[in-house]
Amino acid sequence: MVKLENSKLSESVSNKNITTSLSDCVVNLDHGDPTAYEEYWRKIGDRCTVTIHGCDLMSYFSDVTNLCWFLEPELADAIKELHSAVGNAATEDRYIVVGTGSTQLCQAAVHALSSLAGTHPVSVVAAAPFYSTYVEETTYVRSGLYKWEGDAWGFDKKGPYIELVTSPNNPDGTIRETVVNRPDDDEAKVIHDFAYYWPHYTPITRRQDHDIMLFTFSKITGHAGSRIGWALVKDKAVAKKMVEYIIVNSIGVSKESQIRTAKILKVLKETCTSESESENFFKYGREMMKNRWEKLLEVVKESDVFTLPKYPEAFCNYFEKSLESYPAFAWLGTKEETDLVSELRRQKVMTRAGERCGSDKKHVRVSMLSREDVFNVFLERLANMKLIKSN
Amino acid sequence: MVKLENSKLSESVSNKNITTSLSDCVVNLDHGDPTAYEEYWRKIGDRCTVTIHGCDLMSYFSDVTNLCWFLEPELADAIKELHSAVGNAATEDRYIVVGTGSTQLCQAAVHALSSLAGTHPVSVVAAAPFYSTYVEETTYVRSGLYKWEGDAWGFDKKGPYIELVTSPNNPDGTIRETVVNRPDDDEAKVIHDFAYYWPHYTPITRRQDHDIMLFTFSKITGHAGSRIGWALVKDKAVAKKMVEYIIVNSIGVSKESQIRTAKILKVLKETCTSESESENFFKYGREMMKNRWEKLLEVVKESDVFTLPKYPEAFCNYFEKSLESYPAFAWLGTKEETDLVSELRRQKVMTRAGERCGSDKKHVRVSMLSREDVFNVFLERLANMKLIKSN
Asked: Where is the Alliinase C-terminal domain (chains A, B) (predicted)?
């Protein structure tokens, strides 16, 4: 059985319970619980409040004329309007498939593409370092349809394959394109995971228009508890198979979450042209991330043992200026030969091991989206760390 | 690829769109969309209204001290209180696992039990006629962990197996117990699906206390759009594996749906001791179902070609009197040698083919939970039907 990445969360103290004696607590930055944005949504007040009556949203069906009949029409509208306002993805001539988070959608897409392939199992790859959850998602049911083949760098197996491209990448924040390039191969399929392709994290340099693009509500606004993601899918047969997967997997997606997401995305769209940082969520988010990254870079610079990737500036079409990247995760490395995840655990800081992301012991993934006090405790502990050399 | 049972829904007219010219429309009673109860919830007014602010429910986590850390504590409380008030299931010394409908939980349970088994694939069986969706749920990912082996009657394969027991049964409403009985076999596992074990459908004759019991919000109150189900699980290792499955499958379950379900279940519990039919949901539901079943039985009696199962009366501990069963589906049969699903389709009535439930062409499953006007159109068409003999 695969090692499950979130299962250990319940065994440690989460952000939620850290209120009083934070200094003694384990701080969990292993997962990417995006609680950093709560403050913004508290300040925005009743504009995002939804009221649901006892007789609302009872049917399985949202729109029987839609291929994705469990998608609430107002959510579909809000998704299209937001992408149009931000300019990060094309929505025209595409099917929108809603999912219980992009987690369910990624599996739906892998299922759909491999179901439609001529031979099985279809290889699934991602360039290291990759989102460690991809490993679990493609192995836990031991499907005969597809097979996780690990790192896309050096992948040369014949036959159908699916490459998962995450850009900006989780865990290391780099801008990614496909690595296994077989342009004339009909059996080469790509799923683009754009969870972090939003202007608070990265410059919006182009309007993406790939075959299958995944987005998640969790990482845009921080509403992870809603479990809402969406896929923009060009091919009808693929969209249909994804819908079929979600029907058998969970007979659709929570209507309550969908209408709340619709409301919040609409507010996001309305406020995203505002010059005010307290009003415009992306401005607010960018400032917060900038502030955190500057603090982290300062600690890393002072330490002389830690490393962080460097990101090039790029012109952001949304902010209309050249900007830095402030990824949702820090891909923290060390110059020493040491097991960094264990070293950090000793300091009561939980992070994700680089090895789980197809990398090495010298790297860990650290969430940058915790609550402010938790982030500050992390910085303090990092600044005070003395590494033990191993081999 | 398996035939997907709900995918064809989008191609026909659903209840939702039937308003004006119902007489010409296709009425879809294939699925069990439980819209029959909307009227009750409309009348109950603001007692079930939930208001959710923009900054609420943002984290992945509901309670990090709970094995099922994505379960909202107020939902756990509401579930326990309702079972206690109705007396249909034991909740003490059990883990509650919440799922995106009992659909996700059934797969989580099959996954958990087979993951923990010594050899693979584990056989999965259900006594015919069975819930046709079980076939899709256990085949669509082509898992190497388990294998659908069909009808439990006559199943004699050696090795580990899981029997799915639905009681009252979907599609035929009968009270079920295990069919493959290997009491001394450690490899014999059972999942009890109690979706319909509520007092509006069937007499509550005992407080169930099996190892794994599944329930769904959809069929109790009709809130199918919320996608909430729960499992009561005795064994910690099984509960843990189920939680792991749900983490990888969808990283938990919509918080919005959970808190709304909690609110509605609490109202259900508060009103379930009331003598008033307009107040007590189970009284209301039972009267509505009684009325529908009496009308259907009348049509069937008049026709002389259709058949329906007979259900024995039993003493209901909840209503404290001897009562009939009024199942959520009618298991309609015909005395003629005919393909009943096609005959009904010709009359623009969509039903589920008996063959898909492991039975024959002479039977279909008909939802009894549609809106009233749709149900009446069905009765009218059934009364006017002339069957064409085949063979």
From this structure: 27-385
What's the pLDDT tens digit per position in A46-93? Answer: 999 999 999 999 999 999 999 999 999 999 999 999 999 999 999 999
pLDDT in tens, B28-72: 999 999 999 999 999 998 999 999 999 999 999 999 999 999 999
Cβ contacts of A6 on chain B, cutoff 8 Å:
60, 247, 251
Would an 8 Å CB–CB cutoff place B274 in contact with chain A? no
SS3 category, A116: coil
Inspect the interface and report whether the beta carbons of B54 and A31 lie closer than 8 Å: no
Whether residue B38 and residue A55 make contact (CB cut-off 8 A), yes or no, is yes
**Residue B14 near chain A (CB below 8 Å):** yes
Retrieve residue A76's tokens.
Answer: 């579909």
Q: What are phi and psi for residue A148, nearest 5 degrees? A: -70, 125
Q: Indicate if the alpha-carbon torsion angle A373, A260, A236, A136 is positive or negative.
A: positive
Q: Closest residue of A to B45, CA-based?
A: A54
List the structure tokens of B356. Answer: 């898909």
Q: Which residues of chain A have a CB within 8 Å of the CB of B222?
A: 58
- Domain C-terminal end among A271, A289, A315: A271
β-sheet bridge partners, residue B323: B314
Number of domains in chain B: 2
> Can you give the residue range of the structural domain that contains B156?
58-271
| Pair (B79, B32) in one structural domain | no
Same domain, A36 and A76: no
What are the φ/ψ torsions at residue B185 (nearest 5 degrees)? Answer: -95, 115
Indicate the helix (H) or strand (E) that contains B283. helix B281-303
- From the list B230, B272, B16, B120, the residue with the least C-alpha distance to A141 is B120
Same domain? A245 vs A317: no
Which B positions 226-245 lie with beta carbon below 8 A of chain A? 226-227, 240-241, 243-245
The reply to whether B99 and B167 lie within a common domain is yes
B26 at interface of A, judged by CB pairs closer than 8 A: no
Residues A23 and A67 occupy one common structural domain:
no
Tell whether B354 is covered by a domain: yes
Q: Do B17 and B143 fall into the same domain? A: no
Output the domain CATH number for residue A340: 3.90.1150.10
Complex ipTM value:
0.94
Nearest chain B residue to A64 by CA distance is: B10
User: A5 pLDDT exceeds 80?
Assistant: no
Has residue B35 been placed in a domain? Answer: yes
